[in-house]
Amino acid sequence: MTLKSLIRVASAIAAVISSLTAEEIRSDLLVDKILGNQSCATSGCHGGSGPLHGTLSKFNATDIHARSFATLATPRSARMGEALGIGDVTTSPSCTACHAPAAGVPAAMRGEDLRIGDGVGCASCHESSDTWLRSHTRPDLDHAQKVAAGMRDLRSTYARANACVACHQVIQPRLVETGRHPRLIFELDGMIATEPRHWREVHGWDGAKAWFVGQAVAWREAAAARSGGRDDSAGAAERERALSWLVRRAGGATSAGRVDFDAKSGEADAYARNANESWQAADGEKVLRDLAKCAGEFRNSNVKRLEQAYRAERLVLGLDRLLASWPERVRATACGPALDRLFTTAQSVPDFAPPEFANRLEDFAKAVGGE
C-alpha cells in the first residue's frame, strides 16, 4: 500500500450518491483524514458479535496482519536491524512501510484512531474509510456505488492482487542479502486460503483464476522492479524470467490468451486485468493439464539451472493451487502423493536437479491423466 493510494480515492457526496451512477460519482478528491481500525469497531458494526459484526474482533485475534508491527519488536527483527545498521526497526521506513503502513501517514492527515500498533490495518486493504464510512452500509446503494465512493473492490481478484503484491513480492535487496529477511514469493490464492476468514465470499472464489491473475501481477511487479533499478539482487533476473515463463506457458491455455509482449512494456498490467475479466470456469483444468506436461522443458540444457530452479519453485506452487480448485475432488486427492514428491525436488534452489524434477513431473502428469 502506498500513501498515494490512501490519499487519492474516488469520492462521492453521501446525500446524493444513491441517485448517481458509478461513472457519475467517480472523482479524485483528497481524503481529509486516514482513519484507523477503531472507526470500524463499534458494537453495531465490525467490533460487535455475530457473523456479520464480529469481523474486526476475529481479525485482531487470528490474523497475522494485525500483529505485523509487533513482529518488529522481536529479537529476530532486532538482529536483522543490527546487521542492516538500523538503530530501531520499529521506526525505520524500510520496515514500517509494510509492517506498519500508518507510520508513513503525515501528521496532518492522521485520524485520531490511526494507530501504528494496529499493523496492517483495515485501510491497507479496504482503503481509508473517510469518504465511504457512512454510506457503505446503506442498502439502497449497490456495490459499484460503494466502490465509487472509495472502497476497494476486493471482489475482483485483480484488485486483491494489487492490494497485496507491493509488500509480498519485491522488497529491498539489502533486507534479504544483509538482513536475512525471508525472500518473498507472491501467490494470491495460497495467501487467501491461509488467511483467517473475516469476510464473506459473496460471489464465490475461483482459486485457479486467483492464482493465474496473481502470477501475472507478480510478473508485472518483478519486471518493473528490475527495470526501475529497485531489484538488482542475485538471482533477480532468473526469478523474473521464471515468472515470465510460467505466465506465458499458462496463458496459452486460458481464455486470456497467449502472451506476446515484454512485461517492462507496461502491457503486463493490461493482461492481468484482462485475465481477471476473461477467465472461464474450465480454464483452471486446462492450465493444470498443460503445466503437468512441461517436463521436457526441464531437460532443456539451454536454460540455466538457476532459472530452472525458480521455474520449478513457482510451478509446484501453481500446481498445488490448481489441484486444490479442481472439481474432480477424487482425482485431485489421488494426485496428492505425486505432488508431494514434486515439492520435495523443488525445495532447495542450490541443490535443484532439473532431470530429477522432470521425472517427478512426468509422474504427476500421469496421476492427473489417470494413468
Which helices and strands appear, and what pairs or packs with what?
Elements: H1 3-7, E1 8-9, H2 22-25, E2 29-30, H3 55-62, H4 68-71, H5 75-84, H6 93-99, H7 122-126, H8 143-148, H9 157-168, H10 173-177, H11 188-194, H12 207-227, H13 236-251, H14 267-278, H15 283-292, H16 305-324, H17 329-334, H18 336-346, H19 354-369
Antiparallel strand pairs: 1-2
At a glance:
With 371 residues, the chain is an all-alpha fold. The protein is 50% helix and 1% strand.
Characterization of this structure:
The structure is a single chain. This protein has 371 residues and is an all-alpha fold. It has a domain at 170-371. Helices cover 50% and strands 1% of the residues. The protein is built from 19 helices and 2 strands. Strands 1-2 form a two-stranded antiparallel ribbon. The longest helix has 21 residues, at 207-227.
The count of β-strands is 2
Strand order of the largest sheet: 1-2
Share of residues in strands: under 5%
Point out poorly predicted stretches.
1-29
Share in helix: 40-55%
Tell me the overall shape.
Answer: globular
How do the helices and strands follow one another from N- to C-terminus?
HEHEHHHHHHHHHHHHHHHHH
Oligomer: single chain
Radius of gyration: 22 Å
Summary keywords:
globular; 371 residues; two-stranded antiparallel ribbon; disordered N terminus; mainly alpha
